[in-house]
Each structure stands twice: as C-alpha cells, then as structure tokens.
Amino acid sequence: MKKYTILFFLFLSCFLLSACGKTPTYTDYTGYLTPESAGAGTNSGNGNAPSSSPRQDYVMSGFGQQLESAFDAISGQAPAVTDSTLQGADPQSFANTVTIITSPTPIPLPSETPAPTPSPTPAPTPEPNLVRITKSPTSETVNEGGSALFIAYADNSTGIVWITVSPDKQSSYEIGDAVRVFPNLLVSGQGTSSLTLSNIPYEMNGWRIQAYFNGNGGPLYTAGAYLTVIPAGAGTNPGVPAMPGTSDSVESVTLSVARQAYSDITAYASSYGYSVGSMDGYVYSNAVGDFNVSVSNVKCRITAEFRAYYYSSSNFGYGPVHVNIYNQLGELLYSEHLTDKNMSYYVTILDTYK
Questions:
Q1: In angstroms, rounded to a whole number, what is the distance separating the alpha carbons of residues 168 and 55?
Q2: Cα–Cα 20 to 30 A to 348, which of 157, 275, 325, 342?
Q3: What SS3 class is residue 224?
Q4: Cis bond upstream, residue 201 (ω within 30)
C-alpha cells in the first residue's frame, strides 16, 4: 500500500511541475450546448437515438451553428438551419463581420504600340543629261587668204552655233553673219562640229572663233580659239616650207587639220594616264600631212604615225597609219598597220595598255 502511495505522489509532483508558472485557461462551452431533444425520433427497429454525421453533430451546438452560418455566408450558400438546430441556441450571427472577397477584376495590360514602319528611302533623282563640252577648238595661224579648220564636241547637245568675237571683245557675230563684216570670207560647217573658214582676210587677225552648245543646262560655251593671220608678202606659215606646185591655202588648212588631230590625241591619251610627246616629223605633200606622236606610261611606250588631209571643205580629216608598242626596256611588243582603221581603234589600243 505504501508503495502505491509513493508512486501516486511522484506522479502528482510531475504533473504540478509541468504546469508551473502557467495559469490554466478554460473555456466554458456549456452555455452553447443544446440538450438532446426527447422527441428527436428513434431509430427504426432498435429504439436508439438516431445517428448523426460529424457535420450534424457540429451544427448541434450553438457555437458550431454560428461558425457554420459564417462559413455559408463566405461560400455564398444559404445556411441549412432547421428548427431542431436552433433549439436552445443563441441566434448570434457573424455574417455582418465577414468581408466578402470577390475575384479581382483583371487589370488590362497596356496595348503595345507597334513600332513605326520606316518610310522607304526615296530613290535618288537621276541627274539630268546636262550638256558637257568634251572638246574646244584650237587656235590656228594662217596666211592671208588661207583656210583654217575648227572642231568642237559636246555630250547631250541639241545643237551647235559657231561665233566669232573681236579682239577687244566688244563685237561678236554668228559666223554666217561675219561675211557682212568680212565680204571675202567663205564659211562652211555652221551647225556642225567642224567649221571651215577659207579666204581668210588679214582683218580677222586676232579674232576669236568660238562655239556654244544648246541643250539641258545650255547654252554652254567652248574656250575661244584665236586666229592669227600673216599678211601677204610675209612668207608662208612658220615651220612649214612652201611646196612647189601646191596651193599655200591647202597646205595651211592641212596643217590646221594635223594640229587638230594632235590636240585630240593628247586629250585621249591624257584621259588614260599617258604622258604625251610632241608632234614630230611633220611632212606635207599633196594635201596630206604625216606626223608621229609617242605616248608612254609605267608599262610601255606607244609610238604611232598619223595622217591629216584636206581635199576640200567637205573632204578632210585624220586617222592612224601605223602603231608600235614597246616595253620599258625598248623591246618591241606589238606592231600593226592601221590604214584601214579609224581613231576609235587607236583609242582602244590606249585603253588596252593603260
């Protein structure tokens, strides 16, 4: 007996020690309990009280019913309350203290502003075909009563007009009207790229021959070519002896054609980067003048013979005769006879060896 008494006190001491420093709190729910109704009904066949589900047992208490009402309010369902569940219960409701939280309205996202479509870059306006002078006439020296040839070219031209300008630049005439001032002057080629003046009087000494081209951006004027006239009795053209049995006027104009040819050769060769030598070995005979021109670059030297001729105001010109091409050591690389070729063929050779 004593042994059981000691064990009882040890058990009691442990219980008291575990509760030390902590005041127990009790909630009295007896006021919310609903006594079992005598007329609740019996289970058919055994006389026992009807069984209830856990939810029904929970609702049977007043406090449980209140919580159930709050739960139903939150869930949006009407509370399933019967007369039997309210017997002895305090009809306290928590519905007014419950905040119904609805689903938030989605905040629309800001619509994306589409990237601006870049405007297409306008195609550059093609440059208009403006008049562009490619060759001006060259100055000439003739004997009184002699002839001279003047040539001018331009790209995109719609027409050419030749004029003559006085030495003091105070008077100018279209070349066809100059015959009113110089009655014996003969003019051929107005409106074309080649102008021929014949029977040139000494009074035209110092006058300038010039052309202008019409077209888009025109009129556009060439550089002026000065006309030097040697008076009669002063001898023939310097550097070109008179040939027996030939006309001095034909010889003079033939030399003018040769000089024009040299001017064109220089322009062609320079455009391809060649250095151009002088007009060498000029020889005149029977309205034909022969001469040589050499051009060179770092690769080669090209020596060609040319021929200028003047048979009449409608039959004159110039062209290549022969060409030799040497390397920088002076060794012959190529040779060709060109009497059946024109100046365009010679320019092709320059382009090939540039």
A1: 131
A2: 157
A3: coil
A4: no
Give the Å distances, CA to CA, from 228 to 109, 200, 236, 313, 354: 91, 10, 13, 20, 37
Q: pLDDT tens across 161-211, in order?
A: 999 998 888 888 999 898 888 988 999 888 998 898 988 988 888 889 999
214, containing H or E segment: strand 208-214
Q: What is the dihedral of CA 64, 69, 72, 77, to 10 degrees?
A: 130
Q: What is the pTM of this model?
A: 0.40
For the chain, helix (H) and strand (E) counts, in that order, are: 6, 17
- Quick one: the chain helix, strand, coil %, rounded to 5? 25, 25, 50
Distance CA 112, CA 255 (A): 83
CA 264 centroid distance within chain: 37
3-state secondary structure of 198: strand
CB 180 within 8 A of CB 269: no
Query: In this predicted model, what pLDDT tens digit does every residue of 208-262 receive, in sequence order?
Result: 999 999 999 889 999 888 888 887 754 444 434 343 334 457 888 888 888 888 8
Residue 65: C-alpha distances to residues 71, 75, 81, 92, 351 (Å): 10, 15, 8, 9, 113
Q: How far apart are CA 325 and CA 304, in angstroms?
A: 9
Reference 265, options 349, 332, 192; nearest CA is 349
